[in-house]
Specification:
Strands 1-2-3-4 form a four-stranded antiparallel beta sheet, sandwiched between helices. It is globular. It is 29% helix and 25% strand. It is α+β, with helices and mostly antiparallel strands and 142 residues long. The longest helix is centred in the middle third of the chain and has 13 residues, at 65-77. It is built from four helices and four strands, in the order βαααβββα.
Length: 142
């Protein structure tokens, strides 16, 4: 039986030295801070971001809505969960708002943290959504 290996990269940044300008997003986008009431919306954004992608092959829970809901519950129940690093991006069209991006962060040690997942729904990629979510999450580590 063959084994498939997916190379994952570890990136580091000193957030105290980070200077950034968030991209200008369309006024139809709205970023929401963490609230437990938004857990299902985070799970939906995560699912729509990763279903059919290689990440869902490596982590099958990302390819199922129920799996993404369980993952979100697991993340927010951990001791190191940092609500101020966890954001949801929504996009409004004709009065309806739909989740289109999500990011979560965790404290992993003294002065250290990690981004757990950053996902952007395919039809919103390239609009600055991922960059905006990442920069907002990194600010939460300060």
């Amino acid at each position: 039986m063959g084994m498939t290996y997916f190379k994952r990269f570890h990136m580091e940044i000193n957030v105290s030295r980070l200077s950034h300008d968030a991209p200008l997003l369309s006024p139809a986008y709205r970023m929401l801070p963490w609230s437990y009431d938004l857990l299902d919306d985070h799970a939906e954004a995560k699912y729509r971001s990763f279903v059919g992608e290689i990440d869902a092959s490596v982590f099958p829970c990302l390819g199922e809505l129920d799996g993404c809901t369980r993952l979100m519950r697991d993340i927010v129940s951990r001791d190191g969960f940092l609500p101020r690093t966890t954001w949801l991006m929504c996009h409004a069209v004709r009065g309806a708002s739909q989740p289109c991006g999500t990011v979560q962060g965790m404290r992993t040690g003294p002065g250290e943290g990690s981004i757990q997942n950053l996902g952007v729904v395919p039809e919103h990629r390239g609009a600055g959504v991922g960059t905006s979510l990442l920069l907002q999450a990194l600010d939460g580590f300060l």
